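Please fill in the sequence for the structure shown.

STRUCTURE ENCODING:
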């Protein structure tokens, strides 16, 4: 049985195991009659060849309340795009595959370049941003959910629990963030959340003092989860980071634009597992090494925007405080795992902590060298103001790709 603890900053909606999926699905189907619900799936072509995505589609095919599914397809050529359309054709819902590497989509990118509104960095953030633009251009959804395509433990109840808080018209929530335990292969996973974000937020509070923003981030049980749902009214002003800071960036945008009572976290699964990133200790441009640096930069930028002054000395103190805090938390994780019959490799965990400590300094140096860096993709409100026809052209480009590459 789950607990019912509330942290006092944002609402936590637990899974108390007192309702069933059929009842929740019936409610969502009723809500969807007047508040259409859509789903975005940012996908690499390689994920079509894995074990997770086919099972995800089998589950989604049984969801009656979805108005539309938008698949953002990255790293695909023309033949792979054709294959992707066939692959997703099993979905009974209205769905579309956006081929992000198509000549027409690249032409859209060229239009943005001429306006100074284009980001060169491809990745999940840019993929999600493009899908959100397409969704807004359709003008027919009140709620949108986003989740990853590599969830090996996926069940349609995850989606139902994720969208329920923002789909229910009696609830005040504009953003719902999913959380769950990261357990797989008889061990505790989620290294970046456990060993970087949690101790970093504690260390920041000790070094720079109390900040409401830090308390807000610390309220999320899994701030790096890729599963969240939003009411579409907030999308035009949403700033999407183009790097690995996407999840922290969205939470920061919710903090900037919304009242705390408009944000919640919701328990969506008892067991969650997906593809694991390599630590990449030898290459700072990939894997968890790159991810940890981008996440640190996202947090530092937000704190600086709220008035925190960072210096080299602050980052040195932060690194030392983080390192000690992370080691203390590692003891707690180890004991928790031991009591529950799970394993933790303390050597590999401490290696991760050492790498993350170095990347705190790396992220700090990058921030100090270029404090005016703008990692966010422009909001769709700004894009529409600069080029009122572009969103309509996006719809046409996707439709024309579908016709040409059948």
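FILLED IN BY: designer on duty
SEQUENCE:
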């Amino acid at each position: 049985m789950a607990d019912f603890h509330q942290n006092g900053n944002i609402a936590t909606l637990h899974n108390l195991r007192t309702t069933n999926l059929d009842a929740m699905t019936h409610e969502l189907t009723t809500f969807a009659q007047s508040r259409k619900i859509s789903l975005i799936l940012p996908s690499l072509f390689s994920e079509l060849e894995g074990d997770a995505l086919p099972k995800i589609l089998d589950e989604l095919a049984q969801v009656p309340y979805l108005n539309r599914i938008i698949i953002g397809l990255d790293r695909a050529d023309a033949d792979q795009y054709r294959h992707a359309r066939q692959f997703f054709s099993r979905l009974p819902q209205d769905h579309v595959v956006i081929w992000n590497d198509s000549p027409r989509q690249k032409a859209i990118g060229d239009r943005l370049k001429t306006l100074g509104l284009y980001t060169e960095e491809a990745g999940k953030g840019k993929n999600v941003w493009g899908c959100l633009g397409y969704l807004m251009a359709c003008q027919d959804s009140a709620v949108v959910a986003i989740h990853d395509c590599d969830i090996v433990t996926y069940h349609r109840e995850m989606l139902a629990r994720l969208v329920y808080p923002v789909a229910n018209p009696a609830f005040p929530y504009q953003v719902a963030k999913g959380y769950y335990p990261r357990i797989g292969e008889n061990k505790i996973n989620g290294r970046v959340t456990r060993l970087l974000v949690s101790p970093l937020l504690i260390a920041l509070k000790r070094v720079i003092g109390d900040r409401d923003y830090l308390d807000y981030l610390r309220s999320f049980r899994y701030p790096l989860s890729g599963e969240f749902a939003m009411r579409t009214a907030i999308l035009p002003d949403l700033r999407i980071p183009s790097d690995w800071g996407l999840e922290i960036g969205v939470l920061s945008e919710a903090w900037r634009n919304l009242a705390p009572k408009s944000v919640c976290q919701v328990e969506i699964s008892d067991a969650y597992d997906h593809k694991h990133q390599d630590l990449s200790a030898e290459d700072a441009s990939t894997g968890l090494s790159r991810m940890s640096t981008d996440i640190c930069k996202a947090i530092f930028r937000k704190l600086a925007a709220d008035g925190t002054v960072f210096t080299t000395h602050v980052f040195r103190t932060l690194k030392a405080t983080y390192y000690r805090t992370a080691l203390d938390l590692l003891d707690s994780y180890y004991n928790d795992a031991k009591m529950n019959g799970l394993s933790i490799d303390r050597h590999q965990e401490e290696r991760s902590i050492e790498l993350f400590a170095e990347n705190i300094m790396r992220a700090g140096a990058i921030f100090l060298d270029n404090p005016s860096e703008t990692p966010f993709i422009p909001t769709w409100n700004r894009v529409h103001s600069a080029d009122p026809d572009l969103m309509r052209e996006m719809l046409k480009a996707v439709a024309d790709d579908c016709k040409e590459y059948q």
